[in-house]
Design goal:
single chain; 9 strands; alpha/beta; Rossmann fold; 6 helices; two-stranded antiparallel sheet; 186 residues
Length: 186
């Protein structure tokens, strides 16, 4: 039974709605347990993320999904504070062998969302995690999924919290892919 943690920051609920669609995809695979943590600014004291329960959530998961809107070419500062707080786990390689993937959204079609996905994959690599890519060819999917064509993870372009059906379907696919991969590796 895979346990999947979805750790994300969302200012306007767009990223939150993507997280829920990814969670729905995870849950569509039988016996998958999904836990969400929406990073809140109140968890950051003097620039440091202080919620150990969130780190423990990842400790106890088989896979983690990282999510943040893309701000100024990278993840939001709130997510970065969480990532910085993982350094003790990095030092001991506590998350080595876990699965990881990521998602982001930007206000522009090419708002440098790839840089945020690269940040997530590098964070996962530093922890010794195994990255799960999207695996949907952009532009040729008969269901219209992956409209921005990202392969590294899920990238969306959205100006409102309401997701397009293509984005919901892409997020769902990524969640199901992570859960199926976790089962294969268990």
């Amino acid at each position: 039974m895979p346990h999947i943690a979805i750790i994300y920051f969302s200012e306007t609920d767009t990223t939150h709605n993507i997280a829920l669609s990814i969670g729905d995809g995870c849950s569509s695979v039988s016996d998958t347990v999904v836990n969400y943590h929406r990073i809140d600014g109140s968890e950051i004291k003097n620039g440091r993320f202080k919620t150990t329960e969130t780190l423990t959530l990842v400790d106890n998961s088989d896979a983690v999904v990282f999510g943040s809107p893309t701000y100024m070419g990278g993840p939001a500062a709130q997510f970065k504070a969480f990532a910085d707080a993982t350094s003790d786990r990095w030092e001991e390689q506590q998350w080595s062998g876990k699965l990881a993937t990521g998602f982001t959204v930007g206000a522009n079609a090419n708002g440098d969302q790839l840089a945020t996905l690269q940040y997530f994959s590098i964070l996962a690599s530093q922890h010794g995690m195994l990255w799960v890519n999207l695996n949907i060819p952009g532009g040729s999917d008969p269901k219209g999924r992956n409209p921005l064509g990202s392969q590294l993870g899920f990238a969306a372009h959205c100006l409102t919290p309401t997701l397009t059906q293509a984005d919901k379907d892409t997020a769902f696919h990524l969640g199901a892919r992570v859960a199926r991969t976790a089962i294969k590796l268990s």
